[in-house]
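During the reporting period the student researcher (J.K.) took over the structure-prediction task from the postdoctoral fellow and processed the backlog of single-chain submissions. One of the processed entries is reproduced below for the supervisory committee.
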Amino acid sequence: DDLWTERPEVVEGMEKIYERWVKDFDIDGFRVDTVRNVDMKFWTQWATALDAYAAKRGRDDFFIFGETLSADPSVIAPYVTEGRLDATLDFPLQNAIRGYASQGKSASGLSDVFAQDYRYTTDKANAYNEVTFLGNHDMGRIGFFLKSDHPGAGDAELLRRDRLAHELMFLSRGNPVIYSGDEQGFTGAGGDKDARQPMFASRTADYLDDDQLGTDRTHAEAAYDTSAPLYRQISALAELRKANPALADGVQTERYAADGPGVYAFSRTDAKTGTEYVVAFNNAEAPKSATFATGSAGMAFRGIHGTDATVKSGADKKVTVTVPARSAVVLKAAGPLAQPAAKPTITLHAPDPGATGTVELNADVAGGQLNRVVFAAQTGNGEWRTLGTADHAPYKVTQAIDADTPPGTALRYKAVVVDSAGRTASATAASTTGTPPAEEVPTAASRDYAVVHYKRADGNYDDWGLYAWGDLADGEATTWPETHPFTGRDAYGAFAYVKLKPGASNVGFLVIDKDGNKDVAADRTIDVTETGEVWI
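J.K. obtained the following structure tokens:
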């Protein structure tokens, strides 16, 4: 029941099918499911052909994004850089936002995700294209995550955390997507079918006992309430973005990340007008202040969201911003950035000799203001190809070197920096390719997750969870009797999953209830060199 996507006639046939849909229905783009289950070369050819077809029909804004379940940008970004999709569903950011807004984790989790935005850069795309979200029909809703992370929490606390999560999504780079019902406070009891509540009145018993945030309504009633707390807050965020386009597509520059719960801040700067916005978040239980640099000295910043305060940067360009507990603030500069005094200079760093696979190219830039760096590469005597543009430090891009490139092939690079005054500087660098490593037999190192499917005769999974140990990724281990919930539902029953560390080989697990009572007394193990899923 599968398609042989490695065969040229299959790829060409799929191109024609989707081209016909574009022609007949004037489609704006496609959301592609489970892209990781298809070979990369298929996506490269298919997406390139569709882009060209749409462009011929005057559709330069045609948009294709794909789904691949991983919280690691290095895993999903190649579907943009090599597969030529315009974006992916941003699972890494979803995971980081939940960690910060719901679980009270360090701001460094957000910082780590945004620091890898360069991985998405190509000649036609970048991280600003990423499709951002807080939950979905497979994994569950943000409301469910909040209730799972804070059992027994009151409505006011859950609403506050929910609002903070949406503020993070709407005010950072990317294309935010609301899962219908989240704006009405839907929570659900898990993933898959437990997260697919309708907006209209339901008779489904499993839905009728779901809590909803900010209301006493049940799913027995239709949910189209434009006065619902989350609806009003999300609507206000959308209006804020519309009125201040830099909050949607302005250059995002990190300014501060607390080492632990606290403030996370960045600037969003309008590349055309030079207007800077300071955006700061706080996931702590009390107000927090932070001092950090901006782009201007002696500039007043007036609150336009979350505060009406005005702060002024000093001669060192720094401001001190206070953010209320579990909230966000946005402050807008009174004027544009000053014209840079010094013209930009640039130094380019090529990958080390012997380069294979995906390599990184980076540049050091001094001087200028709102600098953009364009990177290009030549392999052997081939044509020069634009790798992409970086609009903030660190100025980096990636290059995928074809596996069939002979060892010792010359790699030539050039980078050009342009500042806000239009002044330029350039640099070159060079390297050579190496011998790609022999293809290894897939092991656990190629697995990101271990999945345990669980079936109970009574169908009650709410009180049970997965307690795991062994080769788990950092942060995945829990303290007894805390567990990973069975958030997913399928035809077998329910399932839970844990993220694995690189090179994982063995994972032990138990199914226990909230009091630590075991479903089966004996410890169980998964040899993840052989399989990533078990059914019990």
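The committee noted the following: The radius of gyration is 25 Å.
J.K. will present the remaining backlog at the next meeting.
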